[in-house]
């Protein structure tokens, strides 16, 4: 059994996508980041950067004590190696998937998050910041579109953890729709993943865990989420 410390954010969705695809048994331990659950001593013991998702695997492959893992990219890699799925065994295929996994962790995720912050959440609209991150995310969408003109998925012809990492960050903000007309290959890829039964099961968890997801933030939630506590 795996305990998944989760809240329905793009980074949280990455891991539920993988768990639903693999069929590994797991139970969700909600981490209400708007209420400050990520700062509790018990959570910090497994995720010292006070960020979710994190997991605890009570049946690690080495047969030892429970294994905790934090950081969404590390979790995806851990689960891929545990199951032998969604990460190629051959060295060149593995490198390609890991390139695009780390590309997402270093670029698409952080830049999309900053775009969302300055467009949606910032109390003051700063034109320079809005333009800076809008342009960078659009550039990254172009990088994906070019890659997806060559291969079915980011890491190659097979669906992988690289796709699971990137998919939740495409159209993550309802107020900031993706210009799919400019990126037809990105749209084809996004539609294909959205149609997967495991994707639909993973996203159905959003309403179960946080029925208020998407609602305007309270001042208290802002303090917990944006470092004002």
UniProtKB/TrEMBL annotation:
GST C-terminal domain boundaries: 90-217
Similarity section: Belongs to the GST superfamily.
Positions of region (Disordered): 209-229
The species this protein was found in: Stenotrophomonas bentonitica
InterPro entries on file: Glutathione-S-Trfase_C-like (IPR010987), Glutathione-S-Trfase_C_sf (IPR036282), Glutathione_S-Trfase (IPR040079), Glutathione_S-Trfase_N (IPR004045), GST_C (IPR004046), Thioredoxin-like_sf (IPR036249)
Record domain GST N-terminal: where: 1-87
Protein name, entry field: Glutathione binding-like protein
Entry superkingdom: Bacteria
Ranges annotated as biased composition (Basic and acidic residues): 217-229
CDD domains cross-referenced by the UniProt entry: GST_C_YfcG_like, GST_N_Ure2p_like
Pfam families: GST_C (PF00043), GST_N (PF02798)
